[in-house]
């Protein structure tokens, strides 16, 4: 009985907390694919999915059943173990990062004091799934797509790192809850507007979304690093990409848009629970993700790299220096 009280019950609580986070996230990923097609359809003056179920709401389930029923094809020359591990790694990394994202004060799976470092470490590991899939496929198209994607992700992680340093200078803490609490007076998107824009565009590049979807350029690489994948192995890459979109939107909300805080601390805004505000803000950022995809043409690869290294990197580095100078000049200690 003592063993049950000491180990089993706390373990069951932790598992329940993880499931309470993962299950809604998976549903959100499924319906993000639906809303993407609806939003792009509306922008292009067409209906989008509208046949399967009322208003097409069962379309994600139909897509999931289709992918589940397909055959998993393993290329003859592929390294089968790494080939199958790559999509699993990509999907798992997109889920475990949510452990430190706070939905409200105290509503976080692991409220660690180095939450920002944890997020940066997990997002940096994402490139391994891409490289593993491109190499293990034993296909020159997949390998070229993996090289492109790896270079792209590494390039834009540098500017993302400097943007996060700017926020940390203003807060004085690596704890994500502390970062949100520091925005009670003003959201960081206002005083750090250039860094907010740089972070959002870098998030598009980090998640391989249009107009930076070079790794999966249909015209020259067919589908990039996952060209040899089918069935559920492809579905895991697909789900991982959309889960990463939601994750980057959540990080954007925490760093720049006040997390769970209401826009104005007056009625009726402060009557709405914090998690609802958090979800609404994530939805708004995701809508911009979809809007950008339907609006902008794809960049050339040299333009993509020039933007990352010659524009964003110097700008973010300059903004770190300016922010530090302002804080020291006005003797403002977070």
From TrEMBL:
<keyword id="KW-0472">Membrane</keyword>
<keyword id="KW-0812">Transmembrane</keyword>
<comment type="similarity">
    <text>Belongs to the complex I subunit 1 family.</text>
</comment>
<feature type="transmembrane region" description="Helical">
    <location>
        <begin position="186"/>
        <end position="205"/>
    </location>
</feature>
<dbReference type="InterPro" id="IPR001694">
    <property type="entry name" value="NADH_UbQ_OxRdtase_su1/FPO"/>
</dbReference>
<keyword id="KW-1133">Transmembrane helix</keyword>
<feature type="transmembrane region" description="Helical">
    <location>
        <begin position="274"/>
        <end position="292"/>
    </location>
</feature>
<keyword id="KW-0874">Quinone</keyword>
<dbReference type="GO" id="GO:0003954">
    <property type="term" value="F:NADH dehydrogenase activity"/>
</dbReference>
<feature type="transmembrane region" description="Helical">
    <location>
        <begin position="312"/>
        <end position="333"/>
    </location>
</feature>
<dbReference type="GO" id="GO:0005886">
    <property type="term" value="C:plasma membrane"/>
</dbReference>
<feature type="transmembrane region" description="Helical">
    <location>
        <begin position="158"/>
        <end position="180"/>
    </location>
</feature>
<dbReference type="GO" id="GO:0016655">
    <property type="term" value="F:oxidoreductase activity, acting on NAD(P)H, quinone or similar compound as acceptor"/>
</dbReference>
<keyword id="KW-0830">Ubiquinone</keyword>
<protein>
    <recommendedName>
        <fullName>NADH-quinone oxidoreductase subunit H</fullName>
        <ecNumber>7.1.1.-</ecNumber>
    </recommendedName>
</protein>
<keyword id="KW-1003">Cell membrane</keyword>
<comment type="function">
    <text>NDH-1 shuttles electrons from NADH, via FMN and iron-sulfur (Fe-S) centers, to quinones in the respiratory chain. The immediate electron acceptor for the enzyme in this species is believed to be ubiquinone. Couples the redox reaction to proton translocation (for every two electrons transferred, four hydrogen ions are translocated across the cytoplasmic membrane), and thus conserves the redox energy in a proton gradient. This subunit may bind ubiquinone.</text>
</comment>
<dbReference type="GO" id="GO:0009060">
    <property type="term" value="P:aerobic respiration"/>
</dbReference>
<feature type="transmembrane region" description="Helical">
    <location>
        <begin position="242"/>
        <end position="262"/>
    </location>
</feature>
<dbReference type="GO" id="GO:0048038">
    <property type="term" value="F:quinone binding"/>
</dbReference>
<feature type="transmembrane region" description="Helical">
    <location>
        <begin position="115"/>
        <end position="137"/>
    </location>
</feature>
<feature type="transmembrane region" description="Helical">
    <location>
        <begin position="81"/>
        <end position="103"/>
    </location>
</feature>
<keyword id="KW-1278">Translocase</keyword>
<dbReference type="Pfam" id="PF00146">
    <property type="entry name" value="NADHdh"/>
</dbReference>
<dbReference type="InterPro" id="IPR018086">
    <property type="entry name" value="NADH_UbQ_OxRdtase_su1_CS"/>
</dbReference>
<keyword id="KW-0520">NAD</keyword>
<feature type="transmembrane region" description="Helical">
    <location>
        <begin position="12"/>
        <end position="34"/>
    </location>
</feature>
<comment type="subunit">
    <text>NDH-1 is composed of 14 different subunits. Subunits NuoA, H, J, K, L, M, N constitute the membrane sector of the complex.</text>
</comment>
């Amino acid at each position: 009985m003592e063993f049950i009280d000491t180990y089993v019950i706390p373990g069951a609580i932790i598992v329940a907390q993880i499931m309470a986070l993962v299950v809604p996230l998976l549903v959100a990923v499924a319906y993000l694919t639906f809303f993407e097609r609806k939003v792009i359809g509306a922008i292009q003056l067409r209906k989008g999915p509208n046949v399967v179920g009322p208003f097409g709401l069962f379309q994600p389930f139909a897509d999931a059943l289709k992918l589940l029923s397909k055959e998993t094809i393993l290329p003859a020359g592929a390294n089968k173990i790494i080939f199958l591990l790559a999509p699993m790694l990509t999907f798992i990394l997109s889920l475990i990062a949510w452990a430190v994202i706070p939905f409200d004060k105290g509503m976080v799976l692991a409220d660690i004091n180095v939450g920002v470092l944890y997020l940066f470490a997990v997002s940096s590991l994402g490139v391994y799934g891409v490289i593993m899939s491109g190499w293990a496929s034993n296909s020159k198209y997949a390998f070229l797509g993996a090289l492109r994607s790896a270079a792209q992700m590494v390039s834009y992680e540098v500017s993302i790192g400097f943007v996060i340093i700017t926020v940390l200078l203003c807060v004085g803490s690596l704890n994500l809850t502390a970062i949100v609490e520091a925005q009670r007076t003003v959201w960081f998107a206002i005083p750090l507007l250039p860094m907010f824009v740089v972070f959002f565009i870098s998030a598009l590049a980090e998640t391989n979304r249009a107009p930076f979807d070079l790794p999966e350029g249909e015209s020259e690489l067919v589908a990039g690093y996952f060209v040899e994948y089918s069935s559920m192995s492809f579905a895991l890459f697909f789900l991982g990409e959309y889960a990463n979109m939601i994750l980057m939107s959540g990080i954007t909300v925490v760093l720049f848009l006040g997390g769970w805080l209401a826009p104005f601390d007056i009625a009726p805004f402060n009557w709405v629970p914090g998690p609802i505000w958090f979800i609404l803000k994530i939805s708004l950022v995701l809508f911009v993700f979809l809007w950008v995809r339907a609006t902008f043409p794809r960049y050339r690869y040299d333009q993509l790299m020039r933007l990352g290294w010659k524009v964003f990197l110097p700008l973010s580095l300059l903004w770190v220096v300016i922010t530090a100078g302002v804080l020291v000049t006005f003797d403002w200690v977070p």
